[in-house]
Fold each of these.
Amino acid sequence: MVNGLVAGTILAVPAIGFTAIYAVLRFPNFTVASHATIGAFAGYVANTAAGLPAAACVGLAFVVAGAAGVLNDELVLKPLRPSGALTAAIAAIALSIALESVLRFVFGNDLRGYDLPIRRDWQWAGLRIGPQQVQNFVLAVVAMGAVFGFLAFTRTGKSMRAVADNPQLAGLKGINADAVARLVNFVGMGLAGVGGMLIGLDTTIDPLTGFRVILSVFAAAVVGGLGSIPGAVVGALSIGIAEELSLLALSPAYRTAVGFAAILLMLTLRPRGILGERAY
Amino acid sequence: MATYAGLYALLALGLNVIWGMGGMINLGLVGFYALGAYVAALAALKLGVPMIVGLALAAVATAGVGWGMALTTARLRGDYLAIITLGFSEVVRLVASNEIWLTRGTDGISGIPGPWRGRLTPAEFNLLYLSLVILALAAVLFVLERLRRSPYGRVLRAIRDDEQIAEVAGKPVRRFKVEAFALSAAILGLAGGLYAHYTSFIAPDAFVPLVTIYVVLALTAGGTGNNWGAVLGAGLVVFFLESTRFATAWLPGLAPVQVAAVREFVIGLSLILVLRLRPAGLLPERLPRIALPAAPTSERP
């Protein structure tokens, strides 16, 4: 259960990114996968080459992945959005593969681990908890807290919500939809990058890091309600726990299949997700 | 190579039924392709049925899965279908890699019989199989062209262009979408079965998401909505893949991983460029001319 909660919290970070982009731009941006990998590699380079501590690397992962997200959207996806959400989704898959192959070109297919001090697990009331897990958990919670604060209290955050809610009305009120789109891409892809890095801290990274968790990320967003940020958190926690519990009955290889089953189940029973599409 | 082009043409035609005509997307094409291949292979090896029965089983199995998936998402925006199909292809790969008792895991299934394999020289076998694939392709193409010109195809296009209007006109939109998706899935499964019998060896490695991109690229480059375009596009994509295999030998000083990465990058990039620069493809869709009734009578549903 504790493991599931920690995994769910980390999963929530890229899920928020995915769902926030969906809320504003109305298309499933599959490049979340490759941007998570970009973030993981940015953090890796900062960690191993520059020797920065994990927390600083996470910040860097956010900035690099976010910047890449804005750039890729401006160059590739934005001109295609008028042709429909599904065309943009197809382009996103193609872009994801292209970005992934760039990473593969530079870094190769090898598994890489972060250079981290090894610490002993803490024992507490019969539970074993790794300090690394605690640190990841804290980092994920801090990232999420920052996003919620940003959306709730700042002017830009409010205008982002306004565009998501009703683009035409927001336009009438003088909100620049382009600027908001850029912003949501920066934040969303930045969060994906942080998520990729946090996942990498727990295990190892390779060019497929992002792709491997993407199913769980989608599942979290759909289960919570596509387009709802608190929904993504609830969904991610549910998926995290469900994946952990599935280990009791299924082989670990099927962990990611749990997400798929959850999507199917949710769409059959309650397609709007736990919190509905419009919950903020 | 020509056989592969034929298989990809089948896949592109399968995609065209839903994406070109119905406006629905399937980002897990490779999952259906893989399912068809595994069903055909297992039917031949474990049940010992003739190839034609195995192919039929493959088509029926994938159609059933597609039917269920379309039914689940028919009420929702197309985004959900995109997500669910993408997820499906990953799950198929997971099952194929892990249910070792059935699929022999990542080792793959080998020794899938082909028609008269062994009694013919490899060259003769290739030729025979090519004609078999062309035969299947011609049959599918014929059916789909008929479908495209039929009232059924017209309704599908209406749904693609505006679902609500089609609904208002009294068309059972959901049924049409589900049926079209099942038909498309059946074609993908058939292609998968043909692939299994051709290579005689299938493994989860062969069914990576990149295959989906190849097919989408083939259809988009050839002309979405145009069945001949799908065939042309498939030919171009396979030609491109094969020729880059030789061209990459000229890139000096690159590790094999890097060469593969360059190819994948080019594929991804060319799909983006086609979508951006020539979204209608090389052979744009031509709507069949419909003789309008003399008097403006209302069309029967």
Note: The radius of gyration of chain A is 18 Å.
Amino acid sequence: MMKRMSKIHIPTPLRQYVGKQSTVEVKAGTVGEAMNALVAQHPDVRRHLYTDDGKLRAFVNLYVNDEDIRYLQKEGTAVHEGDNISIVPSIAGGAIGPLVLSGSQR
Amino acid sequence: MATVTEIPITLNNDEILRYSRHLIMPEVGMEGQQKLKTARVLCIGAGGLGSPLALYLAAAGVGTLGLVDFDVVDYTNLQRQIIHSTADVGRKKLDSAAEKLTAINPFLNIRKFDMRLSSENALELFRDFDIIADGTDNFPTRYLVNDACVLTGKPNVYGSIFRFEGQASVFATKDGPCYRCLYPEPPPPGLVPSCAEGGVLGILPGLVGVMQATEVIKLILGAGEPLIGRLLLIDALGMKFRELKLRKNPDCPVCGTHPTVTKLIDYNQFCGIRGEEKPVGTGVPEIQVEELKRRLDAKEDLFVLDVREPHEYQICNIGGYLIPLNDLPNRVHELDSSREIVVHCKMGGRSAKAVAFLQQSGFSKVRNVAGGITAWAERVDPKVPKY
């Protein structure tokens, strides 16, 4: 599949693992390829997004532009030049999903 | 032919003057203001999100405001929970909030619920209200509120925040998605930093809380386009607002075509049994701050490792060697496993993880400073600031 430049929007808790960037540009043909490129460039971010057996963590959703990939072709969803991929974690007021494994409850 | 309004208007002259700026707009008018007056909105949480939310709903004239909060005002709340003032520290948030809301608008009916929302009380409570605004700060309650809204047919005006980012949406309307359509599963427990560990820009719940108030008012008036099926993402640092489409999931266990959740469950268990990683920190060897002080004063050969972040070190430190927890795996070679090492952080949680990691890496003489630098400030050296 042809690879195109797209931008991945990194949510706040993950920015520390991608050199503090709020967006990362990748060359990819599908969402899956884009995410692989992301974790290849920034290996520290992998365990926060994926389980040990390579599945996207359940409290993380991926969007291409404004559409949830679960309603498209999931990680096979094609990305086009200039597309925006968003990583959207669940957050809950003062507490956030375990994207920051260093913290712990009081 | 013009439609005759069938809503009996009960606004008195004082109310008409009070709400004049609403009344002179066709989008509100007498009919809209009357709708606000007869509306009953339940605010879950009188903290960061609840403060601006309740204040603006009160100002707008929402007739019945329910408040649910069992907590007490803490000094560290004042940075963002603007309904509470310095004089309220130590007071029940409910009492502090109700007092300010009544002062803004004595025409309101404020109903206080001094309790922890639970599966036993949520359904009955929600039935008395028209709209629920969720301003809570933990996952079990988020799922509880969502499920109770779907089961009672009440819209859930959702807002959430972290550091300087927020989300807002309206869940649980008849044709729209619910929170579980977006996040079917909660994150595992024991890995969730609170505001105390993660921090939050004080203005952020202000921004998001007022968005929630806006959505509540729009739903009551039937005006504008509510955030149904839309997730608004707020980035306060970039001042960027993005929107994602949310779809109602036909397989959603709560609001789908064949729901499997037909009553409220044990949400703590729901958030617990999904755990992939167990909470770390139980069972690591500890040292109390008094003993640490005694041994440091006796000039014993103890290596103090501080696993907090550089900006925390700048607030206060006890001269420890700084390796932030996330850097530890890459910098463990800087440590001498033949020496006795004590590890501390702010409160003892992160350092417990560090101790467990070091033990797994072959360090045998390593202990966690129970209570962290906070315990040191409380029990050993009050000159060290708490934060």
Note: The radius of gyration of chain A is 13 Å.
